TrEMBL record:
Its EC number is 2.7.7.7. This is DNA-directed DNA polymerase. The keyword Protein transport does not apply. Belongs to the DNA polymerase type-A family. It catalyses: DNA(n) + a 2'-deoxyribonucleoside 5'-triphosphate = DNA(n+1) + diphosphate. SMART domains: POLAc (SM00482). Residues 164-379 form the DNA-directed DNA polymerase family A palm domain. GO terms for molecular function: DNA binding; DNA-directed DNA polymerase activity. GO terms for biological process: DNA-templated DNA replication; double-strand break repair. Keywords: DNA damage, DNA repair, DNA replication, DNA-binding, DNA-directed DNA polymerase, Nucleotidyltransferase, Transferase.
Length: 417
DNA sequence: GATCGGCGCCAC
DNA sequence: AAACGTGGCGCCGATC
């Protein structure tokens, strides 16, 4: 099986997922939107009061004028980047000047709430069908082989903040069903361990270690930030970039990068070898032979060449992760289908708890390394077993592949099993 | 009214 | 001058 054949077998499954859709609690989202809407109005008027006049808060250009001209906040002094048109008003930049004016904290809060309302709370209810189900379209056309999801994108539903995460409560199972969510553990780190053969990292995974957690504890940050560190370093983050995301001096960031590659020495070697091979071939390859050509490697412009090198490292790993989950989707659908066929051929009443069929288990979402199923409550145990076994064993690497399974009535309140 | 680049931000 | 990678989408301001 090569990457092309994988995608061909996947297509009918993606079509089925599109047709099935996911059930949305529309009333919940509408209520939530009203509440957030009131908070937004309040913040707006407080901000206009604080700066002395109204303006369009959604316009970065107008906001930059207010902050950096009227309020005379010195962007250069605070290390705020100049964009093409004006100085940046990104959350990262505003964070640096938060203490210089009382309105800035409120602007950040406004941005957070407006984002949730305009991107999720208001658009999603408008897109449901008569059965309150939402039908995203999955595409297979990204440069690494990952899927993408659009109209609406259901691969970027908030999870980081408590308030954002509430939105996941709106993704619910039908009556008599539960959601089963299965997410690969540290997936791209495992693939990096496999490709590089780094003994330290391989042993860590064989011992069941959680490298994201270890990084989090060492740095005193949350686990999501630790992912940014671990993947950032693996994929070529600069000391400057790392210093920005951790809010530490570049020297300290460089020390972290050095330590990372001292801890995992063969990772550094693998990176160099992969870049060299990409330069001589002109392309890189995933585990199942998907190729990505990287013309940037030949560019006379250093910035582009460096970008090409990072692409050369990232693509085989991210692309292989995509292939693994695609194979799992194919395998799971094959198993459910063959059990269903077996059952109908021997004409058993479909009541035994041992029996599965396409009405008992529906694959409804794919979020890069996570699958979400809607499963008849009485079949959760059997389905969970098949899902775990398929996802963990459909591909064999030199490290174990582990899946984290959770069950619940909605996508927010799911408990590990 | 549609389209586009820029900015910004959500997720993995 | 840049400064982990992969996406989709909302809003603004310019343009047609
Ligand atoms: N380059 C890069 N890749 C990322 C980033 N965040 C996530 N990914 C990729 C690599 C991850 O292995 C993969 C799946 O994301 P997850 O959020 O599930 O994290 P991961 O599986 O590593 O850890 P987990 O044990 O599931 O919490 O997506 C990031 O910030 N940068
Ligand atoms: Mn994961
Ligand atoms: Mn995940």
């Amino acid at each position: 099986m090569n990457s092309y054949q994988i995608d061909e077998k996947l297509k009918p499954i993606l079509n089925q997922m599109h047709q099935t859709g996911v059930k949305l609690n529309v009333d919940f989202l509408n209520n939530f939107s009203q509440k957030i809407g009131l908070k937004i109005l309040k913040l707006e008027s407080e901000i206009y009061n604080a700066v002395g006049h109204k303006f369009n808060l959604n316009s970065p250009s107008q906001l930059a004028k207010v902050l950096y001209e009227e309020l005379k906040i010195k962007p250069g002094q605070s290390g705020i980047k100049r964009k093409k048109t004006h100085h940046s008003t990104s959350a990262e930049s505003l964070g640096k000047i938060e203490k210089l004016h009382p309105s800035i904290k409120q602007i950040l809060k406004y941005r957070e709430l407006a984002k949730l309302k305009n991107t999720y709370l208001d658009p999603l209810p408008k897109l449901v069908d008569q059965n309150s189900r939402l039908h995203t379209t999955y595409m297979v056309d990204t440069s690494t082989g990952r899927l993408s999801s659009k109209n609406p994108n259901l691969q970027n539903i908030p999870i980081r903040t408590d308030i954002g995460k509430e939105i996941r409560k709106a993704f619910v199972a039908e009556n008599g069903y539960k959601l089963l969510a299965a997410d690969y553990s540290q997936i791209e780190l495992r693939i990096a361990a496999h490709f590089s053969g780094d003994k330290t990292m391989i042993d860590a995974f064989k011992e069941g270690k959680d490298i994201h957690r270890t990084t989090a504890e060492e740095l005193g940050v949350d686990r999501r930030t630790a992912k940014t560190v671990n993947f950032g370093i693996l994929y070529g983050v600069s000391s400057y970039g790392l210093s920005e995301s951790l809010r530490i001096p570049p020297e300290d960031a460089q020390a972290l990068i050095d330590k990372y590659f001292l801890t995992f020495p063969k990772l550094a070697k693998y990176i160099q070898e992969t870049i060299q091979k990409a330069q001589s071939n002109g392309y890189v390859e995933t585990l199942y032979g998907r190729r990505r050509y990287i013309p940037e490697l030949q560019s006379p412009i250093e910035r582009l060449r460096k970008f090409g090198e990072r692409v050369a490292i990232n693509t085989p790993i991210q692309g292989t992760a995509a292939e693994i989950i695609k194979l799992a989707m194919i395998e799971i659908s094959r198993k459910v289908f063959s059990i269903e066929k077996l059952v109908s051929s021997i004409d058993i009443q479909n009541t035994s708890h041992k029996i599965l069929d396409t009405d008992s288990v529906k694959l409804i979402l794919q979020i890069h390394d996570e699958l979400v199923f809607e499963v008849k409550e009485e079949k959760i145990k059997e389905v969970a077993e098949i899902v775990r076994d398929s996802m963990e064993n459909v591909v064999k690497l030199s490290v174990p592949i582990i899946v984290d399974l959770r069950v619940g009535k909605n996508w927010r309140e799911i408990e590990s099993i």
